[in-house]
Write a structure and sequence with these properties.
The chain is of the alpha/beta class. 29% of the residues lie in helices and 33% in strands. The protein has a seven-stranded mixed beta sheet with strand order 6-5-2-1-7-8-9, with helices on both faces. It has a two-stranded antiparallel sheet with strand order 3-4. A hairpin with a 6-residue loop joins strand 3 and strand 4. Helix 2 (26-35) runs parallel beside helix 3.
Length: 195
């Protein structure tokens, strides 16, 4: 049996599940990961990468009143307690407020016309370092990557040069970027393999 490790970029999977109207829960993430493993494969590990929710206070963009962001990241601890799963976290940075729609309303602005803008930091580095460690230890035969971040291409090339097969995951109506496809040796379809 081929040994499989799955790396999941949580932001990427979450965006696709929301677009497809799927509730993003711990059970969904676990079920999704297991659908990527063939019957002839042995799951070694699922490494899930995400950020804990932002906590803090910031002034609202129009009124200047204080907006308080509270944590709700206990689900990451629950996911980490599941069989085969390990969770790696980055930092979620608050980058200000963005308009919900453009052009902005002409009849005056309110706080409701804006949404918070967050940026994930440190996840690409953790993904790449784990890829390098997997290559160094030869801890699997196949690495399944659930991401479309082109910053990972150099790390993917290292995996490709090893004896490990790297597999990208397509989503319905959202195929992988061409550079990803050239590096991955095959492609799995999301929500279960189609071949």
């Amino acid at each position: 049996m081929k040994r499989v490790i799955i790396q999941i970029d949580g932001g990427h999977l979450r965006a696709h599940s929301r677009r497809d109207g799927v509730d993003y829960t711990v059970d969904f993430i676990e079920d999704f990961a297991h659908t990527l493993v063939r019957k002839t494969e042995e799951l070694v590990r699922v490494i899930y990468y995400d950020c804990r929710p932002f906590q803090g206070e910031t002034p609202l963009p129009v009124s200047g009143e204080t907006s308080i962001f509270k944590s709700g990241g206990g689900w990451l601890d629950e996911l980490a307690s599941r069989d085969y799963f390990v969770v790696r976290t980055g930092v979620l940075k608050f980058r200000g407020w963005k308009p919900k729609q453009l052009p902005l309303p002409s009849n005056g602005l309110s706080d409701q016309d804006f949404r918070p803008d967050f940026e994930q930091k440190g996840l690409d580095l953790r993904l790449g370092l784990d890829m390098a460690k997997i290559v160094e230890t030869q801890s699997c035969d196949r690495l399944i990557l659930v991401s479309a971040d082109t910053d990972l291409i150099p790390a993917m090339q290292i995996v490709r040069q090893s004896a490990i097969q790297i597999i990208g995951v397509d989503f319905p109506n959202s195929p992988l970027h061409g550079r990803f496809l050239r590096i991955s040796t095959s492609c799995a379809k999301s929500y279960g393999r189609t071949r």
